[in-house]
Amino acid sequence: MISVIIPTYNREKTIKRSIESVLNQTYRNIEVIVIDDCSKDNTQAIISELDDKRILYFKNKENLGACASRNYGIEMSQGEYIAFQDSDDEWLPEKLELQINYLKEENCDVVFCSMTRSFSENQELYPPYKPDNDKSYYKQLLLENCISTQTVLGKRNVFKTMKFDTGMPRFQDWELMLRLSRHYNLRFLDRVLVNSYIQENSISVNSDAAVIALKEIYSIYLETIQSDRDINAQINKKIAEYMLASGNNPKSYYKKSFQESFKMKNFLFYLICSLNLHKQLYNTKSKYINYKLRQKH
């Protein structure tokens, strides 16, 4: 049996679609563990209307956050395997069946897939490249996160041994997968099996939380990061980009980035920020990104 864990908080508009996409899986031997993080809207009432004995509903007495809710769901699970779904996303019907078959064929511990990610009228493929199953996922993940929670399926003992870090303000899935990649066999299934929808109030759009989380990841994996100039440059660039989005001047991080691995673009961004023109830089970059997205439609 596969235990599917869904944390939710005030998702009355999307929770039904999310749960039904799990219930409609071609792989039928599942339990759906919904952890309601003390919602104040009609989330509970909507879930109660779904007449399926495979749904197990739990409500936190206080708001604990998605990571603590997932960890509680892991403790409540009975399945040999665990998968995670988000309360505002949607699975394709064959997701679990394809993933469990691939996990067994590859004799791995965790399998993840691709997804579409939508924000407003824009849509992108994630990850935007094909992860390499023949290379170490530890260094691949440090260079660029390619695993999102709702794309993951793994053996129960993996997530019983290593849980989500409730202290991370963002990138909790990335940090967990970094830890797992050092101890378990991760594999990528090259199929788009999830449709993800980023809400306006989602933690995924919080730039300040991203900066804090990236600095924490840098601290945790300091030795490996500083031993690889490309990884060091990439993470410093990420910190700079999120600082820019939050309205702060990231010139020191752009400087660290181009000093580790020189790229003219990051050097120019550093010069612009040195003139305290970081807000103008952000506005220009945003207009360019929006223009490129419109060209795709």
TrEMBL record:
Entry keywords, A to Z: Transferase
Domain Glycosyltransferase 2-like as annotated: residue spans: 3-152
Transmembrane segments: none
Pfam families named in the record: Glycos_transf_2
Gene Ontology molecular function: hexosyltransferase activity
InterPro entries: Glyco_trans_2-like, Nucleotide-diphossugar_trans
Entry's family note: Belongs to the glycosyltransferase 2 family.
Stored PANTHER family: GLYCOSYLTRANSFERASE, UDP-GLCNAC:BETAGAL BETA-1,3-N-ACETYLGLUCOSAMINYLTRANSFERASE-LIKE PROTEIN 1
Name of protein: Glycosyltransferase
Native species: Aquibacillus halophilus
Lineage: Bacteria, Bacillati, Bacillota, Bacilli, Bacillales
